[in-house]
Predict the 3D structure of the following.
Amino acid sequence: MKNPYLLLTPGPLSTTHSVRQAMLRDWCTWDDEYNQLVQEIRNRLVKLATKQKDLYTTVLMQGSGSFSVEATIGTAIPRQGAKLLIAVNGAYGQRISEMSETLGIETIVVSADEREPIQPEVIERSLQEDEAITHVAIVHCETTTGMLNPIEDVCRIAKQYDKVTIVDAMSSFGGIPMDVHELQIDFLISSANKCIQGVPGFGFVIAKRDELAKCKGHARSLSLDLYDQHETMEQHKGKWRFTSPTHVVRAFYQALLELEAEGGIEARFHRYEQNQKRLVDGMEEMGFQALLDQNQQSPIITSFLYPDDSTFTFQDFYQSLKKYGFVIYPGKISQVDTFRIGNIGEVYIEDIERLLQAIKLTIQLKGETTV
């Protein structure tokens, strides 16, 4: 069945027919064939994440990506004698802060303007001033704006001060080349329905084995105990503690195969990057302005300022593009009016060209109706 529109969003995103088709078979969570599939997924994710495969492991966790973030925050940080520094320059860094507060974790928040990247020197100053900090968390691609934060510098500084590093790479892993060992990341978190191009239903954490081993008994939740989830998967060869999203898991495996067939993360990054650059160029030709400078911009999603037109409404713009077969995102930044267009998923340069043509037609039709 053909989709009625293309999702130009940061996840859920448009998937291939073959990924969706993979969900047509039912699976038993106890079956050896299914559990072998889970183990293969875990191994493939580690291989995608680093050349130092023996030092890392993967834990799969039911729910949206935020479930995996909360599982990590709630498990990696001891109940006593620990303090978390969270770098915040958008809604998803703020969400980690809310999780930490809810879990009763002692926290310091280092905030930056939503339109600015996190400054590593500010992180370092906080670490110098507060020796009680034990963990540092940062969002890689802050999809509030499309900002890419400097995780390499932040993690390097954190390790200079012997801190545990946690990176929310929800919208970047699988679409931007990275090596968690080279970046000195202890816990990296992502989700099935992002750059791997699977469907929603579970997240995953790529964890340094020796750091995860220290986490026994830390969890503040039964269901979101990352350590126990990992131990069950290790000891029972792919078994989840509680019912797993079997159809989603099988679709994700298919998505991993298709990532490999495309040429791996480097090839996918190149496609996303070309999509994003053509999008910005085409939008600027029509008078739209991107929120961020290109050197701060991720290839994942782009925020655009509302045009200088008092009659413009996002809802009208959205509905018009939907009729042409495209779904975009409203803005999330608090200080200026924006809308967002993503270009990850099963999206190619010809799709961006069709989108630009649809926006041009939308503008023309609007002009004709206001004359």
Summary: The CA atoms of residues 341 and 370 lie 26 Å apart. The longest helix spans residues 264-285. The first strand starts at residue 6 and ends at 7.
